[in-house]
Each structure stands twice: as C-alpha cells, then as structure tokens.
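User: Here's a structure from my thesis project, written as structure tokens. My advisor, Dr. K., wants to see whether a designed sequence matches the one we expressed. Can you design one independently, without my sequence as a hint?
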C-alpha cells in the first residue's frame, strides 16, 4: 500500500516535472530568438494564450478590441494560492480603496500593472512583455516564485496594436537579410503617419483621463476594476538617449503625496543597482514630469498608485540595430535587456515593500474619502444644457467619479469659473453636484482645479485643463460640503401633440445638436436654422436653433415624423414641436432669416505635410462622432483636386507647400469667390496670413523689446529663457461674437486652449472678428511675459468674406485631442452654418 502511494506521488511529480520542463520560452515558441525580428501581434497573443494554457497561475483577460479589430488583453500572474482567488483579491483591493462597500481583509497582495507599447513604433516593449511573462512562470526562476507570494502582476503586452502593426509591417517590408545599421537608410525612415499613434492617429498616452479613444476606454475601465498599487508605462525615446526611469522630473503636481515620491525613488534605486551592475547608463529626475493628468504615469498617480514612465533609447529609428552618434551600436537585444531588467526590478521592489505600499494605498483612499485635499470640497455644474450634462456625466463615470443631481442646500458660495470670482449661486434640481468626499477625490480635484499650481514652468505638456472650461459648462467650485440629493436627473417632458406638427425644433447648443443635423442631412431631410432669436409657444430660442419643417420635406412622405424622432432619440435630444410657423417674437419660419442648410461636401487634406494628430482629430470627429462622410485627400495632390466638387475644404495644422504657389492660391481664391468655404487651423492660418487676396495679417510688434535687454545670459538658463516667449497649453477667455454663425450656441465668451504664440491682427471692417483675446484674457496655465504681451488684442477665430465664399480662421484648435469638448460645436458651426446664411 505504501509502495503504491509512493509510486503515485512519484508519477505525479514526474508528470509535473515533465510539464514544467516542457514550458517553452518565447524563443522556443516563436521559432526565432527575441531581438532577431519584430513579433507580429497575433503571435504575441498566441504566446500569451499558450502560457495561460500550460500554466494555471496565468489568467488571460481580453478587455476589448481596437478600431482595426485587434484584441486587447492582459495576463494576470499570481502564485498558485492567489491565482485561485483573483476575484476575491480584486474585490478586497477595491474595498481597501472604498470603491466597493465592506471592510478589507488584511494581507492584501500588492498589484503591479505593466503597460507595454502605448506608442506603436516604440516596439521593443511588446517583445519584453513575452520575456517577462515567461520568467514569472519559469519553474527554474526561484526569485519570481518568491515575489509572487505577495504580488499579483498584470501584464498588458500592447496598448496600441494598430500602431505597432503599422510600424512592424513598415520595418519588415524594408529590412534585408541583415539589418542596415546606418540611421539614414530607408529601414530607419518611417513614412507618414508612422506607427506612434493609433488608428485615428491619436496619442494614447495623453488620453487616459479624457478617454476619447476606444482603446483607452476599454483599458481604463479594466484599470478601475483593479486599481493597482504600481503602474509602469514602457516607452522609447530618441535613439541617442540612455535609459530613463523614476524618480520623475519636476514639476510634480502638488496633489502627489510624499509616500508616492518616496516610493518612486525606492524603485528607482533598485533599478539603478541592476543598471550599475551592467554598466548601463541611465538618468532620472529630468524631462518627464508629473503634472498633466492624462499620462500613463500621472493618471495612476492621481488614482493612488505609484505611476512611472520608463524610457529606453531607440524608438522607430532604431529598428533591429542602429549606430548612435557615439559610434556605438544599439540593438533590439540591448533594448529588450534594459526594459526587461526594469520590469523585473520593479516587481522585486514591489514585492519587498508590499506591506508598506498596500498600507499607504489604503491610507491614500481613506484620506480621499474623509479628508480630501484642496480648498474646494464640492463642484456644481449648472444643468441648463441637458445633452452636454449627460455626456459630461458619462465621462465622470468612466473615471469612477461619483456624482448626483440637485441638493438639499438651495444656495452656496463658490468660485465661478466663467467670471473668475467668488460668488453666490443657486442650486437647482438638474444641476450636477459632485462632492470631494469620495474615493476619487484627488483625481476629481485635479481635473477641476481652475489654476493648477506650477512649481516649475519647464513642463512636458499642458499647464491647464480644467473640465468646466474644456466643456464650456457654467460651474462653481465651493469650499462648502454640498451633497447631491439624487443620483438621477429629472426627465424633460416634451409637448405632447395629437396632430402632426408643422415643425420640430432642436436647440443648437451641444455636440448632440451637430450629430442630429449630420444624421438628418444624410437622410436627405431639409433642415433650417434661425439666424436670430425667436419666441414660440412661450419659449425663447437662440440663434442657430434647428427648425425641421414638414414643408419642404414632402419627398420623405409618411416617414417624416419617424425619421426625425428616431434621429433625435439616437443622439439623446428632446425635440420641441409646434403647430404653427408663426412666432410671437422674431422671424417666422418662412422668413429670409431662417436659412436652409445644404449638406456640405467636405474635403480634408492629409499626408506628410500635415500633423498626424491634427488630421486624426478631424478624421475622428467626422467618422466616429458625427458619422458624416469626408474625402481625405493628400496635400501633395492638391493640383489635381477638383475644388468645385466640394463646398468645404479643411486644412488641419500643417506646413502646406502649395500655399506658397501663386497658381494654387489663385485656384483657392476663385473657388472661394464662387461660394467655397475654407477652414484653416493653427499653422495653416499662419501660412495664409499676409497672402495676396486675403486680408488676414500677422500681428506686428511695435518694436523688438529684447534689444534693450541684457545680451548676457547664463548658458544653464537657456531653456528657461525661451519660456518667456511661449504659451504652454494655457487657457484664454475670448470675447465671442455669438451673433455670428461661427459663435452660435455660445454665450459671449469662449474658453480656448492656446498652444502657440502665433498672433494676428483683427480683421478689417466687412469681415468678422468672432473670437478675440482682449487686454487680459489669460485664465489659467503658463504663458511667458513676452508671449502674454504679444497675445493681447489678437484674433483667434475669424471669418473673412471672399466673394460668395468664406475663409474661417481657427488659430487655436477647437478639436484638440478631442477632449476640448466645447470646441466641437464651434467647429460644427464652421462646417455646417457659416456661409449658409
């Protein structure tokens, strides 16, 4: 009997040992050595799937798909004991954060999340992800077994599969039998648009908080279901740079806690010890700061984690190997070794300090719920714009921010975002109310702070981003504790009619209005808009209001009402109805002041002369948000473009060679005279300024004040000296002419995000200065003193009449990163309303 038992144990041991021995490394599974080529996405997924099937301690969790339908997935790795109770660990961690009710149990494992390849052409890190996964489950690796006893590791092998495949395909097509190490050769020169961005050419590393892209929405939803204590975002930078790891550079956002800064340093020192052993160069505390809240390091930081960016020299220029400026050879193997080392080192540091990190994580959230930082304890967003409030609430939900509506308190005092003053305000039933006494209070306060405190003006990205400005929602920040009365908004009731209305009316005041218009135009429904204010059925409607009359839509027949109502329901708009075209004030529906909207035929220029992000923002806006067709045409083919086939031509931010040719400018002017509409954005405006036949002029400074300044400057201060002439993502309050169609749907102010200091004179009489910076328009963010003076009394948005056509100037980008929500209606005005009057 004992002999049979012994033999049974021996058999089990033999099977287990044989299975463990059979575990394939990435090299064995793929059939080639890591670093000898780039691995396609499907093979990466195949290896992750293989490991999950042979290792019970690895769970795969698909969490979405890209725009090009590639699978997004993570691998969750734990010890044998913990892998059986992952769901309990996840929920216990959320209890620790107070996101779900209940008391958290002790001995919670630390959760480490490793994110690879958010920028597609920084392609090394997906290769690293396979190696890290293997070493975590490698039976011969004693250290990882020990670490996993108190650590759960989540590995996302590729955050941006579409961009990475674009890069891998490019490189694979161009490399020969042996890689060419000369950086000037074709295998090191990515064509436009390159693989950095996703399908719609968005930078996913700047989208964490805004979640405009589906990859980000899926990922952050999963992130918020786990709330890891450690998150690392793996990147590559210029091929001549050494390695960067935490601690990060200044400025640190003031919301970051001492323990987060301390723990970054602890992990950084562990990384440094391994790099020193290998004589690898690295740097810390430079360039990559922790201020803008929508990065892969800052967003986790504002959610209680230790967020870090790791940067390896290389990127799309490096390929399989390249000679650097130091005449050294940087290979893909080198890059794999470096990222692999910091991956493993981070897991080790987390495991060795797990109890401390988990405790501080719990303290972070306890403080958030009971003693939130910052002077503002509540935010009230006025509910006048129901459609926009609905979308705003959905954005809050995606970030895990709790909110409600109305309040038992009927009035309060707080900071008015629009006036910049402390004022008393009333709280009404449909106002959105957010209290800072909640788990996500740090993130909430960061996203809403009117004027972020910038300890150092040298920063990597925007210096202001407050949501009330970005969304154009009248809001108040109060130091009082204001709790919502309800979790639901009061439903609006539309007029119930038993007979068919003469017309449907839709207010023009949000992106939903533009979506409705785009939908109806494609269904061949005739839609009109009011040029002036009117009153009907005891309700006042502002200019821009859409009027969908039965008259003129006879061709749609009996389906007219259903088509209109379905289109409105699809975008969440409540239509008003009327039995008469006779208004009590203003112009009747048959007036010449009520204009028929002709469906625009739109061309957008694209290609190597255009910023890929700028084109992507326009493309995504039409394709994913409006679902309205455009023709994307290479700018290099402008001479072949039949302009008369289009009513609208859009020039995103770029450097257009054809704008220097008299022949092409003449072609544009002739098209404009015949009724065309040209929308020029950012640098396209700068290129048009001063051109023959156009009245827009760049602003001319009265004198070069710098000539009077000392010519002696410290070399060490050269970067800081340049800041005096820059605007780094600052918010300006514009005086807006909302009587012009470009300003329809707005009040008399518009908050604009300023990215440069290109400035323009006001347009002369007979043209329209719709959005203007006055004497003191700066609201928030960093602007150098020279730039601030230069920006006074300048044009930002304007319309120049050229014959029957219009040139619409947009010196600031209203579609920036698709998170500047209020700009979308302004851009829709340019596309659909301007020039139709």
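Assistant: Designed independently from the structure alone:
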């Amino acid at each position: 009997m004992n002999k049979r038992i012994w033999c049974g144990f021996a058999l089990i041991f033999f099977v287990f040992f044989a299975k463990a021995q059979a575990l394939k490394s990435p090299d064995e599974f793929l059939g080639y050595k890591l670093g000898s080529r780039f691995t396609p996405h499907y093979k990466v997924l195949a290896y992750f799937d293989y490991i999950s099937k042979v290792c019970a301690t690895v769970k795969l969790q698909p969490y979405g798909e890209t725009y090009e339908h590639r699978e997004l997935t993570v691998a969750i790795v734990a010890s044998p004991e913990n892998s059986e109770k992952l769901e309990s660990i996840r929920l216990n961690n959320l209890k620790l954060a107070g996101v779900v009710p209940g008391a958290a149990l002790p001995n919670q494992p630390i959760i480490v999340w490793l994110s690879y390849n958010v920028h597609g052409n920084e392609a090394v890190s997906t290769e690293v992800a396979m190696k890290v996964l293997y070493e975590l489950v490698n039976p011969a690796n004693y250290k990882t077994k020990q670490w996993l006893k108190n650590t759960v590791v989540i590995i996302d092998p590729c955050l941006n599969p579409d961009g990475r495949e674009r890069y891998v395909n490019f490189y694979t097509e161009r490399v020969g039998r042996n890689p060419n190490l000369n950086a000037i050769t074709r295998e090191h020169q990515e064509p436009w648009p390159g693989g950095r961005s996703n399908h719609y050419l968005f930078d996913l590393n700047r989208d964490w908080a805004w979640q405009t892209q589906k990859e980000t929405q899926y990922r952050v939803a999963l992130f918020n279901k786990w709330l890891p204590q450690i998150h690392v975002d793996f990147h590559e930078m210029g091929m001549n740079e050494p390695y960067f790891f935490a601690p990060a550079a200044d400025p640190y956002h003031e919301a970051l806690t001492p323990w987060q800064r301390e723990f970054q340093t602890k992990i950084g020192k562990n990384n440094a010890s391994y790099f020193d052993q290998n004589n690898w160069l690295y740097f810390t505390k430079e360039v990559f700061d922790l201020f803008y809240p929508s990065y892969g390091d800052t967003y986790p930081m504002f959610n209680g984690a230790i967020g870090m960016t790791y940067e390896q020299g290389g990127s799309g220029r490096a390929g399989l190997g390249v000679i650097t400026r130091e005449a050294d050879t940087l290979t893909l193997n080198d890059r794999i070794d470096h990222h692999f080392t910091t991956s493993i080192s981070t897991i080790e540091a987390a495991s060795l300090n797990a109890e401390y990190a988990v405790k501080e994580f719990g303290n972070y959230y306890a403080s958030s719920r009971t003693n939130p930082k910052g002077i503002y304890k509540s935010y009230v967003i006025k509910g006048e714009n129901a459609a926009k409030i609905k979308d705003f609430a959905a954005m809050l939900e995606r970030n895990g921010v709790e909110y409600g509506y109305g309040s038992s308190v009927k009035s309060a005092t707080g900071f008015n975002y629009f006036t910049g003053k402390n004022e008393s305000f009333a709280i009404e039933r449909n106002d959105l109310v957010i209290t800072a006494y909640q788990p996500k209070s740090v993130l909430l306060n960061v996203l809403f702070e009117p004027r972020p405190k910038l300890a150092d003006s040298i920063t990597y990205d925007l210096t202001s981003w407050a949501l009330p400005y970005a969304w154009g929602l009248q809001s108040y920040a109060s130091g009082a504790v204001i709790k919502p009365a309800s979790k639901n908004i009061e439903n609006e009731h539309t007029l119930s009619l038993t007979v068919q209305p003469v017309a449907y009316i839709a207010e023009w005041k949000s992106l939903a209005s533009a979506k409705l218009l785009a939908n109806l135009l494609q269904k061949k429904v005739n839609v009109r808009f009011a040029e002036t204010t009117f009153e009907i059925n005891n309700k006042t409607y502002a200019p821009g209001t859409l009027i969908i009359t039965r008259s003129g839509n006879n061709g749609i027949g009996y389906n007219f009402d259903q088509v209109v109502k379905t289109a409105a329901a699809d975008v969440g708009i409540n239509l008003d109805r009327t039995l008469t075209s006779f208004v009590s004030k203003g112009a009747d529906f048959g007036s010449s002041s009520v204009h028929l909207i002709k469906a625009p035929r739109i061309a957008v220029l694209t290609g190597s002369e255009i910023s890929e992000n700028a084109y992507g923002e326009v493309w995504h806006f039409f394709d994913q948000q409006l679902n309205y067709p455009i023709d994307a045409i290479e700018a290099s083919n402008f001479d072949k473009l039949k302009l008369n086939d289009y009513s609208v031509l859009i020039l995103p931010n770029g450097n257009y060679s054809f704008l220097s040719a008299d022949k092409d400018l003449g072609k544009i002017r002739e098209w404009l005279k015949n009724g065309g509409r040209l929308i020029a954005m950012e640098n396209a405006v700068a290129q048009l300024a001063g051109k023959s036949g156009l009245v827009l002029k760049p602003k001319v400074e009265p004198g070069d004040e710098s000539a009077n300044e000392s010519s002696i400057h410290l070399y060490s201060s050269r970067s800081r000296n340049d800041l005096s002439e820059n605007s780094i993502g600052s918010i300006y309050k514009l005086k807006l002419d909302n009587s012009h169609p470009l300003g329809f749907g707005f009040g008399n102010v518009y908050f604009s995000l300023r990215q440069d200091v290109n400035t323009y004179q006001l347009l002369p009489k007979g043209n329209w200065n719709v959005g203007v910076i006055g004497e003191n328009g700066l609201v928030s963010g960093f602007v150098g003193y020279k730039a601030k003076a230069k920006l006074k009394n300048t044009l930002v948005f304007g319309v120049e009449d050229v014959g029957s056509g219009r040139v619409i100037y947009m010196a600031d980008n209203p579609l920036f990163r698709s998170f500047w929500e209020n700009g979308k209606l302004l851009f829709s005005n340019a596309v659909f309303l301007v020039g139709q009057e």
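When you compare it with your expressed construct, this may help: The chain has 24 helices and 35 strands.
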